[in-house]
Design a protein that fits this description.
This protein has 257 residues and is α/β, with parallel strands linked by helices. It has one domain: TIM Barrel (Alpha-Beta Barrel), CATH 3.20.20. Helices cover 42% and strands 15% of the residues. The protein contains eleven helices and eight strands. 46% of the residues are buried.
Length: 257
Amino acid sequence: MNRRYRKTIIAGNWKMNKTLTETKAFAEELKPMLGKPKWCDVVLCVPAVNLQAAIRLFKDSRVSIGAETCHYESSGAYTGEIAPEMLKDLGVKYVIIGHSERRQYYNETDVTVNKKVKAALEAGLRPIVCVGESLEQRDMGVTLEFITYQVKCALAGVGADKMRHVVFAYEPIWAIGTGRTATAEQAAEVCETIRTVIRKLYGARVARTVTIQYGGSMNPKNAAELLSQPDIDGGLIGGASLKPEQFVEIVNAANQD
């Protein structure tokens, strides 16, 4: 982490978990445990049906609420989709874009990810842009080239003035939901590559302000080591974000002096 230049952000991705009732119970348990984090921002990205309630439940706390996806159009005949402007009007602050599960199960491409990034920024949301390689790509030795390609595609047409609102999350596909985690060195290498790509596109001043998270099965046991890497500025947390005590442990790891 480098707090001198950029925010540390711990964000939970609930995926398709928790009913409204469970969301209320989670908030009641988490808030007194969390307190007021000194050094890091805390975000919970929850299912769309829980967004409005989560915003209300956490309004008196330091927790921002994010969505798990959005469409790239502001309105239209897109049954079941949610426009960025709709999220913004609710009070949503962040939106996850390009998660590997969205790419795998819902045919999201680098082109649609780019469209969503630009639409989210235009609406005033902060996109958390996910990039990551498969196990096959890592074994082939093309991880850094693939990540470079994904970052460039995601940022195509995005102006330098918007970059302070963009967050990247490195999520190796082989480490999501598997219990496997990239070593701190592996994660640091890729996060450094992401920052290098941004620096080549926008210059050093912009690159050093962009928050880059690690998101492959970060948990209370490995959080401190991962967060000690200079280019890892937080985490996008899956399973551990569903358990208040584990989530707070990760926030505390990011909140050390």
